[in-house]
Predict the 3D structure of the following.
Amino acid sequence: MSRSVKAGRLAGRAEDEVASRTPEADDGFAARLLASIGQPVVVVDTEFRVVYWNRGAELTLGWPAAEMIGRDVVEATEIQLTAEHTEEIFRHLEAGEEVVEEFEFTRRDGSHLPLLVNLTPFLDEQDRFAGMVAIATDITERHLIEEANSQLSAIVESSSDAIVGFDLDGHVTSWNRAAAMLFGYPSSTGAEPAGIASPEDGPPLLSYEPGTHLTGTATFTTQYRQEGGRIVHLDITVHPVRDRHGQVIGGAAIYRDSSLRHQLERQASEEHQRLEEAQQIAKIGSFDFDVATGELLCSRELRRITGLGERSSFDRMTEIIHPDDLAIFEEQVVRAVDSGRTSLEATYRIRRSDGADRWVRTLGRVSHDKSGAAIRVVGSSQDITDQVAEEQARRLAEQRFSVAFELGSVGMLVLDLDRTIRQVNPTICHMLARRPEEIIGQNPDAFIHPDDRRPPGESATDLLLASEDDHLEFEARYLRPTGEVVHTIVHLAVDRDISGKPTYAIAQVVDISDRKSAEAELERLAMQDPLTGLPNRYLLEDRLATALGRGERSGAATAVLFVDVDRFKLVNDSLGHAAGDDLLRQLGRRLGACARSGDTVARFGGDEFVLVCQDVNGAAEAAAIGRRVGSVCDEPFTVEGQEMYATVSCGIVIASSDDTPATLLRDADIAMYKAKERGRARAELFTAELRSRATRRLDIELALRHALERDEFRLVYQPIVELPSDRPVSVEALIRWDHPERGVIPPSEFVPAAEETGLIVPIGDWVLDRALAQLSQWRRTLPGAEQLVVAVNISPRQLMSTSVLAKARDALAAYDLPPDALCLEITESTAMDDLEFTLPMLKRIADSGIVVAIDDFGAGYSSLGRLKSLPVRSLKVDSSFVDGLGVEPDDSSIVHAIVSLGQALNLVLCAEGVESEVQRAELVGLGCHRAQGFLWSEPLSPEEFQSWFRADGRD
């Protein structure tokens, strides 16, 4: 096997040395110790030739040491090792690092054996790399266990039942594919079964309390509401899981979907219920009467009708017959039995035990023996109480109809088949403001609004009479003699004779004029903003669409102005929401007053208003309207009894031929935000460039979500030197984004987007981890860098997440670094904006030993008292002041004041952006402690920094 030229030279230098260092030449105790180790211990030179082969290697691989000394171990044991892999191993070993690899060895007898091998570098007396020491561990059993686990996992994954494993604390430890499909969670490891509830507040998956239900197998059922609302019935079996000592270490729950079984059972139950309901609705029960014994067998429905038992008697039956009907019943039954007839029929009343009387009709068939004597009567009895009552009610209803027709509160008309009115009640006369004689004999169309009349043959009455329906409902407007309109709902019904032919029609007319007025008012309110009385968003979009259509036909331009109140949240927070509402009402009135005739002023939502201006003569007139809009805030507003001033930012867009209401509102909104970016209280005209910037910002936000997982970020490091010695004492870690398509995207573009989306938190965690990992390597491998410190910027969003301290501690511990090896830099505005929150958080960070520094100091609005309260150890002077050192006297004065302030507070001062010797000299003269900038180095890659440090960073 060949290696690189470099490796060959190393092998050549160390070959004799390694060959001479045999166990026989070493101390006797060490030789016996190596020989007695049960694991294989092998020493090879840089060409993989065996130098040492202990007893463990002989027993494990089958070759005696005498056969293996001097042989190529890779060829002898048939290890699969590529040249690239070999180079990688030697690179780590030559760097002094340990390598752990898993190889499959071939024994002397030809069998294969998996071994986990720890490789450590072997050095000669001059500490040069001369070979490697390999200590191997047999992992055959682990492979068997992994294979068994793999088979078990395959069985579990292929199961159609959901299988969930959990520990004694109730946390899920395994979750198969069927569980993911059943419950809709791709993975729930670590979650609690009792906490994985239905998506729509259904019952929990498993009623489990930690430490209970695990003494043995338990089964129960429950229901689960899946995403989309489907209810799944589950049969659950819970088994305890034990370790090899028999101790319960968790549980396994098997969920079987029993929805089909439940569905079949439910269907059977429903069918049975429907049958019983049908019997009850029909009120028909059956009986079987034995004439010889007098025994009467009754069905369940007959028992319900009569109150008799399942087995009764004819005498008991006669006892419940109404006294007035007993003679008739006995005559009809006895006559049918004794006369030799084969059928009987009787109608009578019974008196139940609860005192209620019921009407019953009995039909029966009589069976006779060979001699003609009646032996059996089988038949049915139907409860006809309701029919009898209905007949009585019908007669009563006919009497009452006449009264209701005359005195009813609903207008009524009776019409012949030719639609001639034959009868009216007083209510319809009052409704139409006419006397009966003015209505009777007329066609209803004579009183209906002309717009609601239908052609001959298509009226509601004609359509109803021509169909098989019995009733019809429709709305109609009637006219009074004064021309007043009466809105009504007409219920038209037709009466038919026994053959189904219509005989007449009756119309019930209900006055709904008040309801129509209320509906019109509701429709108006639905299109109006309740706070300002202006059109709301829905009416705005409708009018904007109308304006666009009109402009397309006429060629006139339409402008949309999107208006937003500046710092409106401050009004709500300081004066309250009632004051904010009052301000919006006043602003709405002022905007309406400044609009042109025909323009629409609408409240879009919150503190946003929109003006739709038709027939605009180009951008100049639209801009003039925008200035007029801004001028409505020149006069103060009176809110809560006190004067206050407010300003608005306005975005303007001129509609083009392919615009829609949605695109115009979007573009005007973009222009409005541009006005806010440029200082507020101004109007900005939308341009294609603004849309391009917004689109680019959106693209960046989308790409950011994949940048971490695709490893597109990298860190560069700018040295920070001590003055006046220029000795490097720390580095500032700066993030860069190498986009695969757009190239390098500057932080000024993607950091604000990361802040808004919250992605700055995971990105910041990545920066912390990567920067501390790099610092750890430099401290260990770079001479003179043992005390080097790394500075990392943290954003306001990271500080608000409260996890930055925990992330920093974890990373420091992971890379074995002291807390003061890390400096967290926050901007002055971040530190000062919300001291109530940031001060406790910064104190916790400082108390942990991590250095806190204020970045860009001087660009904010800090007071001395507030600065004094912060637990910071360093101030970084903003580069905007450093630029003018030695040129602008004001800048020198400002830096001098900052340095004096820092010295008074015992803080370390660091100047940013130093690019010239003049600036450096000024800083040294002012007593500034540290500096960074292109004078010493631009931000460097890790490799470039190492080279710079070796060349320029030595003491």
Observations:
- The radius of gyration is 48 Å.
